[in-house]
Amino acid sequence: RLGKTPYYTGAAMTFLRPLDQILPPIASIYRDLLTILRKSKSEAELASLVTENLLQHFPGHRVTISVLQPDGKVFPLHSQGSDGSALENPRSFDLSPASEVWEAFRQGRALATPDVRKEKNIAPILAELLEIDPNTSRIDIPFALSEQKAYLLSLTHSTRKEWSGSAKKVLQDFAEFLGFMFRDVLSREDLQ
């Protein structure tokens, strides 16, 4: 949560470093997002612009924003790798066979997975997941949860990556902000 001080204060912790020294620089991400929000006219356009922006702050990653349906289906809205590539096979898939993962997302919990091949809770969907995105390290953060719709922000990487608690918290706060952005764009779409 950004306050008037140049420091980041989350619900569970306070960073004692100025914002511009936290990786990635949080202040510039939020500044960019406010500009993106003003430009965006649709959910798809917002997903595309946010994804492109995040890649600037997370080099070497793939960033994906997906829609989570109440039945466990995941529909990628936009996905882009750091090399500019889209997903080769951007289709929907059913998350519900991985019941622990699905339940965590339904409760709004983020999951950081250093290597999906070694996670038992992902085993029921592993083959399909790797077919869609071959990156094995990932963090997935659900946001803007409602009875009808939720979103999932996913950052993936080709090599094993440990996500610290503070990085996870920053990304969760960021996803919460994205939720406000998506609700704003959807309400503007409804008015048109």
Could you characterize what this model shows?
The longest helix has 27 residues, at 165-191. The two termini are 31 Å apart. It contains 5 helices and 8 strands, in the order ββααβββαβαββα. Helix 1 (26-39) packs antiparallel against helix 2 and helix 1 (26-39) packs parallel to helix 5 (165-191). The protein is 37% helix and 23% strand. By secondary structure, the chain is of the alpha+beta class. A hairpin with a 4-residue loop joins strand 3 (62-68) and strand 4 (73-81).
Task: Describe the structure concisely.
The protein has 192 residues and is an alpha+beta fold. It has 5 helices and 8 strands. The strands form 2 sheets. It has a 6-stranded antiparallel β-sheet with strand order 5-4-3-8-7-6, with helices on both faces. A two-stranded antiparallel sheet has the order 1-2.
Secondary-structure blueprint:
Layout: E1 7-9, E2 14-18, H1 26-39, H2 43-57, E3 62-68, E4 73-81, E5 93-94, H3 99-106, E6 111-113, H4 126-132, E7 137-143, E8 150-157, H5 165-191
Antiparallel strand pairs: 1-2, 3-4, 3-8, 4-5, 6-7, 7-8
Helix pairs in contact: 1-2, 1-5
Task: Evaluate the radius of gyration.
Answer: 16 Å
Work out the helicity level.
25-40%
Give the overall shape, derived from the CA principal axes: globular
Q: Which class do the helix and strand fractions yield?
A: alpha+beta
Note the main sheet.
Answer: 6 strands, antiparallel
Task: Supply database-style keywords.
37% helix; 6-stranded antiparallel beta sheet; alpha+beta; 192 residues; 5 helices
